[in-house]
Amino acid sequence: MFMNMEPDSCGVGWLASGKFGSSGTIETHDTMCVLAVNIINEKIYIFLWFWLVCLTAITAAWLIYRIVVIVSSDVRFKLLQARGRWAGRPNLDLISKKCNLGDWFLIYHLGRNMEPTSYGEFLKEFAKELENSVSTLERKPMLVGS
């Protein structure tokens, strides 16, 4: 038994099937197949393809943004400045210089979840603490036994 399907552009195709007849030769039967389900599936897959292309573009842009934030301390400072304008530029300069990437990330997300004036006060107090504290490299771990 063999089948040959030659579809048009509209999802309609001719199906040629054959089987061995009573004399031992192949008898072919031509039938027309209307594949309405395939037409619907084709539209769904086209939509999904464009949707996934859009998601890929958005994900690539977000990944580039994250890489720029990780690499550039100037971008991190600008983002901190946009969130914490109530703290003042000298305090933000001090925080940017003394904090590493992980500290900045935590401080930035605190700013996303706090009221701007409260966040500005927090940054002012945090800058005072950083000014009076020892540098990050000289700090001792918290869980070291005495």
From TrEMBL:
Record field: transmembrane: 44-68
Signal sequence range: none
GO biological process, one term: monoatomic ion transmembrane transport
Coiled coil: none
One Pfam family named in its UniProt record: Innexin
Topology class, membrane: Multi-pass membrane protein
Cellular compartments annotated: Cell junction, Gap junction; Cell membrane
An example molecular function term from Gene Ontology annotations: gap junction channel activity
InterPro entries for this protein: Innexin
Cellular-component GO terms for this entry: gap junction; plasma membrane
Principal place of residence: other
Keywords attached to this entry: Cell junction, Cell membrane, Gap junction, Ion channel, Ion transport, Membrane, Transmembrane, Transmembrane helix, Transport
Family: Belongs to the pannexin family.
PANTHER family cross-referenced by the UniProt entry: INNEXIN, INNEXIN INX2
Function in brief: Structural component of the gap junctions.
Protein name: Innexin
Source organism per UniProt: Petrolisthes cinctipes (Flat porcelain crab)
Lineage: Eukaryota, Metazoa, Ecdysozoa, Arthropoda, Crustacea
Gene: inx
